Amino acid sequence: MLAAFADTSMIHAHSSPNIALIKYWGNRNNEWRLPAADSVSMVLDFPTVRVAIELAEKISVQSYDHDGVEKPQSDASIARLEKHYALSKEFLRTIGRDEELPENVSIVIHSGVPPAIGIASSAAVFSCLAEAYGALVKGDALSRKEISILGRLGAGSGARNSFGGYVALENHGEGIGSAYGRQIASEQDWMLHDIILVPDQKEKKVGSTEGHAKAATSPLFAKRLNEIPRRMQECISALETKDFEKLRKVSEEDALEMHRVMQTQTPSLQYLSNATHRIIRDIERLRKSDKLNVLYTMDAGPTVHLICTGDSLAAVVAFAEAQKDCIIFKAKTGGASHLS
Ligand code: DP6
Predict the structure, then answer these.
(1) CB neighbour class for 281 (10 Å; exposed up to 12, middle 13-18, buried from 19)
(2) Residue 116 region, left (φ>0) first, then alpha (ψ -120 to 50), else beta?
(3) How far is the CA of 311 from the centre of ligand 1 (A)?
(4) Fewer CB atoms inside 10 A, N or C side of the chain?
């Protein structure tokens, strides 16, 4: 097997997190990470993840944090990476190309994203791996849609990094390849900023994968699914017309509702903390008094993303820096995952 791929040298890829504006929560197929509803997000330019992969006799994983310190990999995270590779092959089989991917690879991950605190570390890692696997495939380059599918098979939201700017993850029929990203607008079309406030660096106890699988136990889940098509339309239209107020309204409505679903599913998931609620209250007050274009949103963690336009950036950064005991990341709309 190795000999057939012996010309493959090390492949490097680069990606970053994305922050959902209409959230993905719950799957129609957990195994293939096919979402129950469509979603849309903004790709961020920071923090970044880099991977290097190479052909190997057996799959191996090394992972380093932002200080370059090697992090021991749990059995669960190795199993997830192995599963992603197997699913990538399964998808490639449906387009007659699984033989072009080698049996095994060695994976080295350098992640600047703290894991499991609501900054989409898994989207960044798996979209990065998707990019690298795409380059490992021997024949013609895979399309961006196919790279997006590979990303989704590792982390559902990872499908939204294979394009830059603002990206929808949409469902199209059945099968392992039936949900993938589509670019709504590029980072050049509309540059927004995301000031990320991390009040708590403890890793969450229940990750998104487990949470998605229980979403349908919430009595609010079905209603949420009914609301998503309208919200998608409003959000996409706001992004296309750069209507910040419209974007703010629909994305805050959706984020708060996703958290109500999380809280009412069994077992209940309480990702938001007192600090989250305080930050939301204070930013609502400030944006009213100072007429700021800023919206808040939270993924699966207490972390608050304050997304704002350039003219409100200085005030939002000052607000963030005045918060006690918070780590701050300053990001803006970023580009697609890519080889490096
Ligand atoms: C709350 O993509 O992290 O961030 O496929 O299990 O890794 P897995 O799920 P993931 O789910 C993201 C959930 C969310 C909302 C969103 O990003 O749309």
Answers:
(1) exposed
(2) left
(3) 30
(4) N
CB atoms within 10 A of CB 152: 33
Can you give the pLDDT at residue 8? 54
Q: What is the pLDDT of residue 204?
A: 73
Concatenated DSSP letters of 262-331: HHHSSS------HHHHHHHHHHHHHHHHHT--EEEE--SSS-EEEEE-GGGHHHHHHHHHTSTT-EEEEE
Give the residue, out of 18, 299, 303, 307, with the most ligand 1 atoms within 8 A of its beta carbon, to mutate for a pocket test. Answer: 299
Identify the segments of the chain with pLDDT beneath 50: 1-7
Cβ atoms of 255 and 200 closer than 8 Å: no
- This prediction's pTM: 0.95
**pLDDT number for residue 118:** 60
The pLDDT, as a whole number, for residue 66 is 82
pLDDT for the residue 2? 43
Residue closest by Cα to atom 6 of ligand 1? 209
Mutate which of 15, 24, 40, 117 for ligand 1? The one with the most ligand atoms within 8 Å of its CB, which is 24
pLDDT, tens digit (0-9, with 9 covering 90-100), for 37-74: 999 999 999 999 999 999 998 889 999 988 889 989 89
Architecture of the domain made up of 1-340: 2-Layer Sandwich (3.30)
